[in-house]
Design goal:
There is one protein chain. α2 packs across α3. The strands form 2 sheets. Strands 3-4-2-1-5-6-7-8 form an 8-stranded mixed β-sheet, sandwiched between helices. The protein is an alpha/beta fold.
Length: 394
């Protein structure tokens, strides 16, 4: 089986999109499928690229900027350029299936080429239309994606919330291929690094923490705002925030305004090789995503990684978290947007150490059996086979 994947961008550019698609490609190769990779104009103007791992990516040259006379014409020129490139690569490599990963431009190009060459088209939807910035641009992206999804031969999404949204838009055949992890990269949390804890001023704990990007929808202001109530119940508690992002300055200001200096510790960005050391300091990871459309739909990667490490996790009950956490079995859920509910859940968990081992084991078990890339990518198999069978019958 030969699948031509059409991507917005890929490695060496690093993003959640490129990391997910690269994991999919690697696992499909391990399953014995042949993959071909083509990126659109946003990647760069390289004809063929071979990275250190030997992966071969076809590239698409961007249209000349001087020929473009406005945003609409620019989009049309980019789509026409991508369509021509996809048609040429498809004729050269002779795939059985076209698999277009969002954006909708990729889907539109795949529909054109699939129709011309008689190839089935799979469209992999993205939550990008949910971005709260740019209402008009978001509406256009959503409309274009709906158009593509309604006409593709099959549709996949990365979350159940996205699948439900697709169904509401008239797409009833979408399947979920959830984000996953390579489990061998996630060792159990090591013993507490007492020296690092001392340097950060964490004391003897307990320590709650957040590891991830500091975006508004992640709800870190709510977590910091819950600290006075948490400290009233547990004065020795400390909060460790590991990462960085656009909300960092406002969070630091909030800490000062609430008189929490020394109680809330910012580590800054941490090198990947040191992640385990910082994880070892945290007794309970808290993920307080807010009840916003973006937080409901966008898959939650960091809680999944925490569960892969066998961490104790408490998270708000937004849709993306409910897909990962079974309350009382693999972690704790609390009412999204409520500082009081957050504080109550955290204090309850910290007081009940007898349940920690069971929750940690349950979290690790869930990842091992439900959220490895092997189990996730295997969901493509019946979908692809159905499309190939349909094509053979034509």
């Amino acid at each position: 089986m030969r699948i031509l994947h059409l991507l917005d961008h890929s490695v060496p550019r690093r993003s959640p999109y490129s990391l997910r698609t690269m994991s999919i490609l690697q696992q499909q190769r391990e399953l014995g499928w042949q993959t071909i990779q083509l990126t659109g104009p946003r990647q760069g103007q390289v004809e063929v690229d071979r990275n250190r791992s030997g992966w071969h990516f076809y590239r698409t040259e961007a249209p000349e900027a001087s020929l473009l006379g406005g945003q609409l014409l620019a989009r049309m020129a980019s789509l026409n350029c991508l369509t021509r490139r996809l048609r040429a690569v498809a004729k050269l490599t002779r795939p059985d299936i076209l698999h277009a990963h969002a954006s909708a431009q990729n889907g539109l190009a795949a529909l054109r080429v699939g129709r011309d060459l008689g190839l089935p088209v799979v469209y992999e939807a993205s939550p990008g239309w949910s971005d709260p910035a740019g209402g008009l641009a978001r509406a256009i992206a959503r409309t274009a994606e709906t158009y593509v999804a309604q006409r593709a031969d099959a549709v996949t999404t990365s979350s159940e919330a996205m699948r439900v949204d697709m169904r509401e838009r008239g797409v009833r055949r979408a399947i979920v291929v959830p984000d996953a992890v390579n489990l061998h990269k996630f060792d159990p949390v090591p013993a507490r690094d007492a020296g690092l804890a001392r340097r950060l001023g964490l004391g003897d704990g307990p320590v709650i923490g957040f590891v991830g990007p500091f975006y508004a929808h992640e709800g870190l202001a709510l977590l910091v705002g819950a600290m006075p109530a948490l400290l009233a119940g547990l004065p020795s508690l400390r909060l460790l925030l590991v990462g960085a992002g656009p909300e960092e300055a406002s969070l630091r200001q909030q800490v000062l305004q609430l008189g929490l200096a020394g109680k809330v510790v910012f580590s800054g960005l941490v090198a990947r090789r040191h992640n385990g050391l910082y994880h070892s300091l945290i007794d309970l990871l808290v993920y307080p995503r807010l009840p916003l459309p973006l937080a409901e739909v966008v898959p939650a990667i960091k809680p999944l990684e925490a569960m892969a490490h066998g961490h104790l996790v408490a998270a708000s009950n937004v849709g993306s978290h409910r897909e990962l956490i079974q309350h009382g079995r693999t972690g704790f859920l609390f009412q999204a947007g409520s500082a009081g509910a957050l504080a109550e859940a955290v204090l309850r968990l910290l007081a009940d150490r007898a349940c920690w081992q069971g929750l940690r084991a349950g979290a690790r078990w869930f990842v091992e059996y439900e959220r490895t890339w092997n189990s996730s990518v295997a969901r493509y198999a019946p979908l692809y086979e159905k499309l190939l069978e349909r094509r053979r019958r034509r």
